[in-house]
């Protein structure tokens, strides 16, 4: 009898615990801060600072929850959004990434929040298309940045190198660095997405028009321009200009500091945080330049990355989240956030502190630099995921560039057809 | 001695059967069986039937359309899936041969040694680690700038240094070796138990007959370890077919999806590409491989037992 009572009690306790677990997260609905899921663990501090300002205005702050690797993050979020208790707020990619998530019907529309922010001059209307699916807005920009080549200034100075402005000068830099025993460029395929960075850089500097058209499904991966580009990439890999593709992208700041690599492509302004954490000081230890175009007459472009902040449609604290998002782009809220990122605020009224991104921002505003979307967000996710795997395979074994392009084109045919069918 | 019904004893007819007693036992029997039946139905049978149903439908999330065997045809003509199937077969062979062979070797070699327990502890210890932790450790070892290549350079064997995780099929082989490093521990434990269960008289009798060394091991010890081997091979087969965490953390299935097994491909289709139909079809194929392997193995073992 005592044993039965014990087992019964144990069962009741387990059932109680299970019910408790099902009752939902400690979210904005209970008067706490809004859960904000992000894939960048180091951003928690900046978001909490912005959250303090938001709490003063709306009564709800931000409680950042981080899941480090991009692939794990995306899978966890997609699964959680299907549940009855999804997170209140979610960081998500713009462009087709945003559309892919919005089409599942799990995101709350943010048209009113966007309209109010735009009316107050807190938003660049040109960004709207990156957060829109079937005419409705599903995200507000979390940050906006540009891809540059970050380089070790002291290493360049020691070897008598300067920031290259032409492809010939860039090639000279690569040859000099290699001759002196330094791997010139940090690139990798670990965690998949970094393979897209160098592909995007190289493609946009070879033929920006082809890059723009192919990401929209209006050009072929087997055109002459990509074939030329892949052969050039192949010769660069064979010349030893790239790191081994099994290096981690997270190692690059430390490698840059110790001279293991001389440069790598990354987004400013926020990547400079990692360099400073590695012990490098801006302007004296590291600098940034735009990768030159391969041919002299090619239009100058820059790759941009804009992530979004979205709200889950089924979140228990949805009302508070939407109220909070009404003030997300408020300069008072953006100031601590932008200060934390060294710039990159999507609110155009806030100046960017980081010199390279400020310089690019001015050039973009002056029409001297055309902005292109990052490859990761510029095409349907399934197409990009598959193609990035192909590119990762190419980085490991660059023997068949044409085969890689044919595989990418074959996937493009089926995935664009699938995407159009799914979203028509 | 026969265990059948004696000829002179007629089987009980319905009229003579003690119905009350049986009826009283029925609810109790049902009560004992019910939790297991419900658990197996809810957690295993229903999901399998749903997965099977899903695999014959397209990849739409909402209102999926009937696709028949199209998904299977498309999947089996995909070179990535075919390589994934081949990798799964590599894993099947590798995870049986390596842990079983190494486990037996370590158990036999260290059984009678005074310092054997320390050697066994070193081999058994990785079994306590999670697959993800093992992957992180092996990543330090196998990276291009990792410990293995550094050691080869230090020993003047730099010509053998290369990207261990970068080219197929070598990367799949090193993943299987990493898995064997972890899985051998359980084989050692089981073989030690098996060795201790061998009656010493049989070994002594063989010694008196002049059987020593390999001959004694081959003809006296090994046959008596048959039961243990059945269990070790069974566990290794299951471990090989469900291999996921080690691959996912160490290579993510790459580069170029070259290290995927069916379990990783299923995850890739279902959760990365969000293709529930294709993911379900891969799950069904994986189930068929698991069931076919298990049934073939167990039938063979049970028949010979």
TrEMBL record, chain A:
User: Membrane-crossing residues?
Assistant: none
Q: Which domain of life is it from?
A: Bacteria
Q: Which key words are in the record?
A: Signal
UniProt-listed InterPro entries: Bact_solute-bd_prot1 (IPR050490), SBP (IPR006059), TAT_signal (IPR006311)
Signal sequence coordinates: 1-20
Is Nucleotide-binding a UniProt keyword of this protein?
no
The question of whether Transmembrane is a record keyword is answered with no
Q: What is this protein called?
A: Extracellular solute-binding protein
Q: Which organism is it from?
A: Streptomyces tremellae
Upper classification of the organism: Bacteria, Bacillati, Actinomycetota, Actinomycetes, Kitasatosporales
From TrEMBL, chain B:
Its membrane topology, per UniProt?
Answer: Multi-pass membrane protein
Task: Report domain ABC transmembrane type-1 positions.
Answer: 85-297
Residues spanning the membrane:
30-53, 89-110, 122-141, 173-193, 279-298
What is the name of this protein?
Sugar ABC transporter permease
Question: Gene3D superfamilies from the xrefs?
Answer: MetI-like
Region listing for Disordered, in residue ranges: 1-22
Give the UniProt subcellular location, in the record's own words.
Answer: Cell membrane
- Protein's organism: Streptomyces tremellae
Sorted alphabetically, the keyword list is: Cell membrane, Membrane, Transmembrane, Transmembrane helix, Transport
Family, per the entry? Belongs to the binding-protein-dependent transport system permease family.
SUPFAM superfamilies (alphabetical): MetI-like
Indicate, by first and last residue, each region the UniProt record lists as having compositional bias (Low complexity). 1-16
